[in-house]
Amino acid sequence: MPDGKQSLEIGGTTVVISNPGKVYFPHTGHTKLDLARYYLAVADGALRGAGGRPNVLKRFVNGAGGEPFFQKRAPDKRPGWIETVLLSFPSGRTAEEVVPRDPAALAWMANLGCIDLNPHPVRAEDLDHPDELRVDLDPVPGVEWPQILQVALVARDVLTDFGLTGWPKTSGSRGFHIYARIEPRWGFTDVRRAAVALAREVERRAPDLATAQWWKEERHGVFVDYNQNAKDRTVASAYSVRPTRDARVSTEVAGGARLRPRRVHDRHRARPVRRPWRPVGGHGRDGRVAGAAARPRRRARGRRARGRSLAAALRQAGR
Asked: What Å distances lie between residue 48 and 43, 63, 261, CA to CA?
């Protein structure tokens, strides 16, 4: 196993990467140090999704091909500059979870083997009221990408009809995510109920394409997974590297509300989008994303929303 250490100076903070040459993605050859450098390269976008929120540490200590373990509690031995917050769960248990707020924290998490980022839908300042409603589109085996996009468009329209703005991203795996920023006024139970209602409305509008049925044997097409809004659930955030053979990345779909199937060329090999969800950073009084009324910027004509892999992101960062 590769040994040694490498220190990274990040905004005045030193982060030590142990075993920097340890290969995390055998197929692509990417190492733990590559993972840390990737998150530094896309820190602005990654922190828009995971920053300021408690994060579960999903640790792949043996790389993407190994079995991960979920660590809710922050390590006892951690730098003093790592922020934490105490969460309470329905089971009655509590956990002091990590709250990343800067690039150094992302690199520190990567050193622990956190290939992807898994934030809760709440801010550290208000742990009882989610500010995101998350739509997780999970296709059953055999469902192709065009059908997933059709369901995504239906989900977006449902959100729009109820005064919410949907912000789409690839999951980095087979699925698709749509986030809607909401005011932190309602508890988890109410937000989950809203997600159930949304899922059923998507199913009603596209009964041949989507399902809201909980039991797997009753599902068909694309499952609108409302349970990702439960209190103890997290979802891999935008810019997260996924533990796949070719190091895919969960990436925002440029154009926001202008999502169209023809614009998504490759759902898996996602590049760090140069125009992240810029308005996503606050919430409006009506529950919409702040700035959502702003017209999305158009892409250059003929340019496709082609994705890239972790390798491309590192090349762009000047590795």
From this structure: 8, 25, 25
CB 73 within 8 A of CB 97: yes
Residues 170 and 240 sit within 8 Å (Cβ to Cβ): no
Q: Which two tokens stand for residue 35?
A: 């993972």
Judge contact between 133 and 199, C-beta under 8 A.
no
Q: Is the dihedral of CA 290, 184, 121, 98 positive or negative?
A: positive
How far apart CA 165 and CA 259 sit, in angstroms, is 12
Per-residue pLDDT of the chain (319 residues; tens, 9 = 90+): 456 899 999 999 999 999 999 999 999 999 999 999 999 999 999 999 999 999 999 999 999 999 999 999 999 999 999 999 999 988 889 999 999 999 999 999 999 999 999 999 999 999 999 999 999 999 999 999 999 999 999 999 999 999 999 999 999 988 999 999 999 999 999 999 999 999 999 999 999 999 999 999 999 999 999 999 999 999 999 999 999 999 999 988 864 444 443 222 233 333 444 444 455 554 433 343 222 222 333 333 333 333 345 555 555 555 5
Beta partners for 313? none
